[in-house]
Amino acid sequence: MAYDEELAARIRAIVGRRSGVSEKKMFGGLAFLVRGNMFCGVVGSDLMMRVGPDAYEAALARLSEERRTAVILRVEFGYSHAQVAEATGAPSTDAARMTVTRGLQELRAALREPEAP
Question: Domain residues of the chain, as ranges?
Fold first, then answer.
């Protein structure tokens, strides 16, 4: 899979030539690493960011139980949409796909928003 060169160039412009920063082709895209640890990447036209476990858990907790379960099964366990449908009792593979998609959209939004005090 090709990655968005313009997005990669924008990241390069931000990180500049900082010490310890490198690039590596991974995940079918391009990853940016600092001292060997990925901090962001480009897959297709998507920007992928590494977030801390606390931020991820807090964002997951904001999802409904149905969407949280579907996202965890799909992302963390690698279930297919058909397997998610079977495990969650969704009426169809398409219904499971939509639940995962909506859950991921909510998760992205939650990770963008600062946590309320």
Answer: 5-49, 53-112
**Residue type for position 30:** L
Contact 44, 4 (CB under 8 A): yes
Exposed/middle/buried for 46, CB within 10 Å: 0-12, 13-18, 19+? exposed
Q: What would the CATH number be for the domain defined by 53-112? A: 1.10.10.10
Hey, is 41 helix, strand or coil?
A: strand
Q: Are 47 and 32 in contact, with CB atoms under 8 Å apart?
A: no
CA 45/CA 34 separation, integer angstroms:
22
Q: What is the pLDDT of residues 75-111, one digit of tens each?
A: 889 899 999 999 999 999 999 999 999 999 999 898 8
pTM confidence score: 0.64
CA angle, 61 as apex, 56 and 66 as ends, to 5°?
115
Name the DSSP letter for residue 65.
H
